[in-house]
Amino acid sequence: MIRSRIAIIAFLFFTVISHAQSGINCLTVDSSGLYSKAFNSFEKDLFEHYNFGNDSIKTYRTFLAEVASLSLDLRKLPSDNSIQLARTFKKKSSDPNSIWVKLSEYENQEATKKTSPSTTPNQGEEEILIFNYRGGLIQCLKNNSNSDDFQNIISTLEQDGNVSTSLIAQRIYYIPDDRFKADEIKKFIAFDIYYSILMVIEKAFG
Q1: pLDDT at 121
Q2: Contact partners, residue 74, CB within 8 Å, separation at least 6
Q3: Under a CB-based contact definition with an 8 Å cutoff, are residues 197 and 165 in contact?
Q4: What is the pLDDT of residues 27-69, one digit of tens each?
Q5: pTM of the predicted model, to two decimals?
Q6: Cα torsion at 107, 164, 184, 56 (round to 10°)?
Q7: Residue 198 and residue 74: Cα distance in Å, rounded?
Q8: Please, are residues 89 and 100 in contact by the beta-carbon 8 Å criterion?
């Protein structure tokens, strides 16, 4: 009887701990609130554009399918607010804690590990920015995710971040529903896919 009570208590304890860990809001790594504002703006854009009510899985999957097939209508989807937030992220890309980094710097970090020749952009070329897969935000999303598929995708990108957005969208699309609906994956989609796209096209919005 005593053993069974101990077993029940232990089970409840680990259940509480598990829920507590899965409830971590990784956006709080940014104390300014910018990440939270950006995620809320992203979701508002998405749900208003696709108009599938509260069906988040259908909404997110439709967005990913259009990114993967290069059929996304970028003239209608982003709001002015999201464009301004993308510009803010772009301006902050040189900050030490930025969630976007220069591709050349990212590749040079890996080249240093492998003692391979480093790469530098040609003079006059605009630096390509990529999501920092080795940074605090993405590592928090990865470590708190229950999806092995998602963790494997991030592990691959940590080694080589020069992967097309359409290919990343395609891989995320096929994560099973029970894992796909997790906040960690939604936040990854918001920043690595949506805002990464907006940072490239923001000049077209004047």
Answers
A1: 45
A2: 197, 201
A3: yes
A4: 998 989 999 999 999 999 999 999 999 999 999 999 999 999 9
A5: 0.81
A6: 170
A7: 9
A8: yes
